[in-house]
Amino acid sequence: MSTQPVPDPLLIACALGIEHLALRMGDRGGADGPVTVLRTGMGPRAAERSVTRILADPVFAGAAVLATGFCAGLAPGMHPGDLVVAEETRDPRGAVPCVGTELLVKELARTLPWRTVHTGPLTGSDHVVRGHERADLLATGAIAVDMESAATLLSAVRGGVRPVAAVRVVVDAPEHELVRIGTVRGGISAFRVLRSVLPAFFEWHRNVLLPRR
To answer: Which residues contact 6 (CB under 8 A, 6 or more apart)?
Structure first.
């Protein structure tokens, strides 16, 4: 009697407790295989340590990795609650191409039709970006910035061949710069969007699974 192979797991990495809470509150139905939501801690070093450690477990040898959470939008016209699907993540150590970007855009637009989805490079920073730094980063071609996605995906591909992606929710933007997440309207809007993204992530995972070797 033949048995179906167990799909490789999906590792969803976020940094903050509020991001982890939003994802835990999301709809877990429809997952194709085991799903782990990892809170890495804030900043690129914490992300690199956490992702490297968990991927060292043989259980995650073929895991797909998706970095998510909040970000700062760089382009004029972005609003809190907008979605950013990275074509690549980049930091001073290099760029990592993302897999299945078009599929993620399609599924997020279907899941959240009232939200704008932006695509482009997502750049990394080791600090919260404000003021003129936004314009400097926009000039490099990036459309958004966060502190963990680039480190997460770089650590993921260093650990083996696997599908990787990054989806972020804009929590502040040039015309909507925020001081504290969760105490203002934009933060609440971003939280609600992040709480709703899991079905799109599961569909991405279902379509990019690599065959077991």
So the answer is: 33
Amino acid 55 reads L
Q: Which two tokens stand for residue 155?
A: 């650590």
Please determine, for residue 52, whether its predicted confidence score (pLDDT) is greater than 90.
Answer: yes
Residue 197 identity (one-letter amino acid): V
Rg for the chain (alpha carbons), in Å? 16
Tokens 């314009």 correspond to 135
Least confident of 22-26, 137-141, 171-175, 204-208: 171-175
List strand residue ranges (DSSP E) for 98-140, in order.
Answer: 117-124
Angle at 193 between CA 179 and CA 204, to 5 degrees: 125
CA-nearest of 47, 135, 29, 51 to 91 is 47
Say if residues 99 and 165 touch (Cβ distance below 8 Å): yes
For residues 177 and 41, the model is more confident at 41
181 φ/ψ angles, rounded to the nearest 5 degrees: -70, 140
Q: Where are the beta strands (DSSP E) in 131-185?
A: 144-146, 164-172
| Helix axes of 198-208 and 101-111: crossing angle, nearest 10 degrees | 150
pLDDT surpassing 90 at residue 173: no
Q: Mean pLDDT throughout 181-199?
A: 76
